[in-house]
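Replying to the earlier thread about multi-chain prediction with a worked example.

Input:
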Amino acid sequence: VIRKLVRFLDQRTATAPFVRKTLRYLFPDHWSFLLGEVALYCFIVLVATGTYLALFYTDSTTDVVYHGPYVPLQGQHMTEAYRSVLDISFTVKAGLLIRQTHHWAADLFVASIVLHLLRIFFTGAYRKPREVTYWLGLTILVVTLLEGYLGYSLVDDLLSGMGLAIGNGVALSIPFVGANIGSFIWDGPFPGSHAFFARMYIAHVFLFPALIAVLLTAHLALVALRHHTQFKRSARETERKIVGVPTFPGQAPRSLGLMLAIAGLLVLLGGLVQINPVWLWGPFHVYSSTNGAQPDWYLGWLIGALRLMPSWDWTIGDYTLVPNPFWGGVAFPGVVFGFLYLWPWLERRLSGDQAFHNLLERPRDAPRRTAIGIGMLTWVLLVFLAGASDRVFVFFGISYGWQIWFYRVASFTLPFVAAFVAYRVCLELRSGERVEHARERALDEARAETRAGEAA
Amino acid sequence: VTRRPRVLAALVGLVAFWRPPGPMRPDEQERIVPRGSRQPRAELLALVLLAFGVVCAVAFVAVYALDRLPRQTQLLGLSLGLALLSIAAALIVIGKRLVVTEELEHGYPVQEHPDEQETIVRTIAESDSRLTRRRLVAVGLGTAGGALGVALLAPLASLGPGLDMDPFYRTPWRRGRRLVDEQGRPFRASDIERDAFYTAFPEGADPELLASPLVVVRLRQSELDLPRANAGYAAAGIVAFSKICTHAGCAISLYRAPLFPPAEPKPALVCPCHYSTFDPATGGAVIYGPAGRKLPMLPLGIDARGYLRATGNFDEPVGPSWWGVRLKGPTA
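Result:
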């Protein structure tokens, strides 16, 4: 049967040489190489669950009165959009399962992309000839952050409304054109016209996912064309020769297993662990907000940056140049992503290294890169933690004001400390290894001598 | 007697099962994938996992089909999740233990193809021999592309009023407008108590406009310390501010009162998004947090029947700031 199928397909598509090569394409084996695959499979789960949700969601801001089964909201005014999400949660069979699975998948999607990025950064996998692959991946992360934000904004509960208000404030703060951009996107001042939700909807379910799919395809095509990078585990791996497990038999069934495992984990979470209980927040009105609201984890660094800024609009007399949210909401992520985009080029300038690289470096093999990376990571992490300082106050009673001051000072000092420590640790690990090598060599020599002596 | 049917059967068998001699079977050639040893236990494990996956998948359909089951979401998630996980486990057992696999090595793709690069460059370079004004044609193509791009993007201007900033300054408040609550009932000055917090809207206007909602609080006369610009904005100790934070546009829904001295020195309005804190006694000045602009204050008066009314518009534009926000005051 297989022979017949292969012949049929080859005669129609002339792809047998391509398929034969694909089957024998080699995957170097290392657990950290799975992170990118996890992201890919999250994306598949997101498209599947998202399509299901789109069958029931309504992107309308028309005012309606709720008469559904959830008693605390009965009789309340809300938008049709919010009511449709409540209906997905309470009346559509399996709707809540799919909605929560979708939300968990989004959170894991961003997490796996970020971990994948850290792996790529700290092993130098982005070096020539793979810079374009790296930039495509980074762009996927940027689009994904916006996509996730749009996703939880579409719900139109109190939490999404507060997020949109902040997003609008950040957009308005962009120098010179902020208000124009805000007016364009929202069709006027916040909360905007009815058209705004239609715009978010098409962006969330079509424009951004399509963009991610295109970027992802290009990303994977480039990975395959240049083949995977690999760690030097033995003398077999070299810059010219790749060692790994073929697609089939080998990688394909395991990878398929990973896909189903990711999907299974997400469905289990979606069914058993509550996430974003939209009915608790109630509908959004511009005049409502609540204490203790936190965004999804991947926007925590931005809320932290917004909170850390002291009271300061950049003005000349009565002329406002740069309003405050710009620094935390645009400049800070701009610096972080700017660094990430420029890094391959910066490193080439710093090291003068123009060579091709197929072998990965361990973090200790590139102490300077590791130090800079750890410094940046510490910076972002501190600002991220600052975003949770109100919760820390509630749970542990540590003064909010003191925490903010701590993070303001720490975010400009600790990254340097962390970078220095990382640098020293790399050097220590390397010199430790050198000692270890020397000791082993000496032992081998001693053994050889003893053996020679015994023989004599 | 019994011979004929046997021959017949042999003939039938020959016709049914005969195949022309084809290429050698893979076993007899040199193998691509090496032969592996049998793994009956792993095989059994994979089969058991697959069977369990089937059971869970069927259970999912059953749970889905049953109406009014308690904890249906949890059971749905559990059954489908376990179905996926056990089939995943079976695949991983198959991939790791049953499918024969080995580590192979082959060469990385070459770094570059100089000959092919050269061919591409020359193909392009040699295709323009008919052109006499090459640069002009290139500029013409570039300009045409740019003009077409601008033309195709032009309809995007319909998205929103990109240049008209007037809507950002407009508010529904004007002299004489009464303050009403969420149900539209007008506030009397006597309704406003100290250490409490009220949200008010302009009578007859859309409450969902950014410039509509107010926070209204009553302070002691002795606490009031309004700057000269806001003199006369308070009515019998009652002060009103835009409810929208000037930092990022969230609603200011926290009022720090009554006080618990000595930690909190005075009443304050707090936005829960980034904890910008404003002082109602001094006309909405920022006393903590990231907001860079004071809270817009609305002048209040009390009419003959005791109702609260606006006696003018806000002293500042409402909502988060933008480039040049302070140049104009709000308009009706």
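The longest strand of chain A covers residues 241-246.

Feel free to reuse this layout for your own posts.
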